């Protein structure tokens, strides 16, 4: 598998609406030039327009473990799939869920053929998340998110432990990823790629930031 870069758009102005399409187009271009695998993760309301403008995979930032019915205000897996999403994050540190909710969301996603990335914050939760058999777990200590200090450097033992705990499940490394050397370090620790956001979305030149991330791919 090629090195995987998952770019979470969050709800920044720089990655909302028309800017979401612009950023996804940049990611598509860098992926084509570099050979890296890129996934973009816009807000739910932007999934449709982004998915219909780029050929790289588009994931949702969150979805709920519900079925068709009276679930006002929730996000339905089948609706995301029809909008063009190919996968979803679950339990991001900014949208934390209980274990039963994570399980329900993971199962709902699988019914809709969506790839799942369950976010975790330590080795114990990584092991619990991996037992639910998602496609990926993403280890992200919340204190390092947006800090510019990558977890692969601040606490590499957490990454190594997550890889060991997530038996049979692919692992992504998140929190503080902003440079190509961070991606390289994450891969060397046994992960399949990285999950990041502000290092690209808030960059003065997002294309240059993305190209810097894939220089070691």
What report would you give on this structure?
The protein is of the alpha/beta class and 217 residues long. The protein has a domain at 4-112 and 176-213: Alpha-Beta Barrel (TIM Barrel). 39% of the residues lie in helices and 16% in strands. An eight-stranded parallel beta sheet has the order 2-1-8-7-6-5-4-3. Strand 4 (87-90), helix 4 (99-111) and strand 5 (115-120) form a beta-alpha-beta unit. Helix 1 (18-34) packs parallel to helix 10 (206-213) and helix 5 packs parallel to helix 7. The termini are close together.
Identify the notable features of this structure and list them briefly.
single chain; 217 residues; alpha/beta; TIM Barrel; eight-stranded parallel beta sheet; 16% strand
Please give the structural blueprint:
Layout: E1 4-8, H1 18-34, E2 37-41, H2 47-51, E3 59-60, H3 77-83, E4 87-90, H4 99-111, E5 115-120, H5 123-130, E6 136-139, H6 151-154, H7 156-165, E7 170-174, H8 180-188, E8 193-196, H9 198-201, H10 206-213
Parallel strand pairs: 1-2, 1-8, 3-4, 4-5, 5-6, 6-7, 7-8
Helix pairs in contact: 1-10, 5-7
């Amino acid at each position: 598998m090629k090195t995987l870069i998952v770019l979470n758009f969050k709800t920044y102005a720089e990655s909302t609406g028309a800017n979401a399409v612009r950023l996804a187009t940049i990611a598509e271009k860098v992926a084509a030039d570099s050979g890296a695998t890129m996934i973009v993760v816009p807000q739910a309301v932007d999934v449709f327009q982004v998915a219909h403008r780029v050929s790289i995979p588009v994931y949702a930032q969150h979805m709920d473990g519900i079925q068709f019915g009276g679930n006002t205000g929730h996000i339905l897996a089948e609706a995301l799939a029809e909008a063009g999403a190919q996968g979803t994050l679950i339990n991001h540190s900014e949208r934390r869920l209980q274990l039963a909710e994570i399980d329900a969301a993971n199962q709902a996603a699988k019914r809709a053929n969506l790839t799942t990335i369950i976010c975790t914050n330590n080795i114990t939760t990584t092991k619990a998340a991996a037992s639910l058999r998602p496609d990926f777990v993403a280890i992200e200590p919340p204190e390092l998110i947006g800090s510019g200090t990558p977890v692969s450097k601040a606490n590499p033992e957490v990454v190594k432990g997550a890889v060991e705990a997530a038996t049979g499940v692919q692992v992504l490394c998140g929190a503080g990823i902003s440079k190509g050397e961070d991606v390289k370090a994450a891969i060397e620790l046994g992960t399949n790629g990285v999950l990041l956001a502000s290092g690209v979305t808030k960059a003065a030149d997002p294309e240059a930031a993305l190209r810097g991330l894939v220089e070691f791919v």
